[in-house]
């Protein structure tokens, strides 16, 4: 008799201890938001597979060039032609920049004028010991004070990397602020309570703090690499997923409070009712994300475990921290609303939007799912215009970009690939033959071979018989020399990539050991690898998630129907987004990884709502039969799933504040796709289809044999 009162203290004490533990996680992990940049890099070369030709060339650069400096190109232009004052200023900069910018590795080239006399360019090698964003920033500052009317830009590989870094600068500040404020406003509107949104967001932010803390130390230990793209997706994914899972638990808790006078009893009922759906949903997303480990791109490979870790923390807070806080707060969490009175759960309400939708499905189920299916299929037509073959690297940054403006000026006054040559490593005895074959390609403007003896660092090919280059010899490393090819097209253009492809085809028969690298080859290899990843991972994700659904629902038919609906929803989202990109937003195209990421997130997260729905439908079907179970499940879960979908869509939409083309496109695709899935597919298509198919949807489980 004396043990029962003591047990009453255990329950709030457990809730208090869990709350303290998670608050400690938030307190420790919070400061790491500002430190995660220490282990983050946006250098493109570090994300290629080791087997890529461009990566192999990158590894051997120091053998020929003496260091692994990142090239920056300074280009100056005056529309009326360079003046003597301009030329004198450029010459002074060439001499003074090594002293003004410590990050410069070696000497700065003289300013080479264009043939039309309207522009000039200098080559500036930047040390890798200093973050590229910082060194380019110092260089751009040092170049301020140019003569009036002279436009000066820092471009090249270093300039592009710096602009990308600047684009990602708002990931740990602006992005997080916009996402949190958006979620808070939506939750206040949904629940009409000031306290409950705070508790939900506290849980979500604690999950994010834990994920950031773990990711920081794992990245620091070299387990995986993090870049701005991975950071942004991690932040959004954790906040969105944790909020979704929390809303599911809140819905169950609120329902249980109406059926019980005991907060502890309501907590236990809510936890038991939501644990299977939350674990299954989180497990599905984690499984889909871990499929990215099979990617050849290190950025994709990193996102898989990083995001999966974030989802794990989201599941943990939804099943521990939030229940603990709601246990302590009780009915006060829903203030000013009062949750009192016992509700008869066997008698669904006859009013409300979800009851009306359920009634419509009951009378016209087949007509409803056929009409919705046709509309979704029509949306897929936009896939015909999807251009996901890659975009020029300079177009990755939306808005102002010195590197893009500089590239355009270089293309207007110099051979397009000037300053960013294609690097070809060839056997010394094959140099002349390879150079002749390369120069036979219309996309190649000129050729030179790296030489430490040359005043300019290279020797023109064919080699001149006299002059300052006559006595210079090519630098030889391991029996190889490095041929540098200047392309006629911009180095980051798709036309330049096609030239590299043609060169690989033409030069390989001369010697199988020839490898081609440089920034253009880097872009090409990234696109090729991304396309390969997309073709491999998308089918794998489908298989993995289907198997998980079969185990969860103990059925074969239901998972297949759910996957068909989810894939159809994804196709519609991608098709409509393609139309927006091409005709409204006027984007230059899309990276091959955009459809892959969109698929992984929409299928993995979209299936969450189907799991929320179908686990409840299965529960109700066991009591009332499949047809009634489908309607009851829809009525009970309709509000929470819709709210969760709106929250997740708004969260992903926040990615659009980062001026990076990839993230903006991903924001559009996922936000629209989640809304489509939550408001149309899960609300109309799936319940109507399940209601029409009836008990056969549970085949071959026992539930399929119940009348």
What does this structure look like?
With about 700 residues, this protein is α+β, with helices and mostly antiparallel strands. It has four domains: about 200 residues, Multidrug efflux transporter AcrB transmembrane domain (Multidrug efflux transporter AcrB transmembrane fold), CATH 1.20.1640.10; about 110 residues, Alpha-Beta Plaits (2-Layer Sandwich); about 190 residues, Multidrug efflux transporter AcrB transmembrane fold, CATH 1.20.1640; about 100 residues, Alpha-Beta Plaits, CATH 3.30.70. About 60% of the residues lie in helices and about 5% in strands. The protein has 20 helices and nine strands. The strands form two sheets. It has a five-stranded antiparallel sheet with strand order 7-6-8-5-9. A hairpin with a 5-residue loop joins strand 2 and strand 3. Helix 5 packs across helix 6 and helix 10 packs antiparallel against helix 11.
Blueprint of the fold:
Elements: H1 3-29, H2 53-59, H3 61-65, E1 70-77, H4 84-100, E2 112-113, E3 119-126, H5 132-142, E4 151-155, H6 156-167, H7 171-191, H8 195-220, H9 228-257, H10 263-290, H11 298-329, H12 353-379, H13 402-413, E5 422-427, H14 431-439, E6 444-450, E7 458-461, E8 480-487, H15 494-507, E9 515-517, H16 519-553, H17 557-583, H18 593-624, H19 626-653, H20 661-693
Antiparallel strand pairs: 1-3, 1-4, 2-3, 5-8, 5-9, 6-7, 6-8
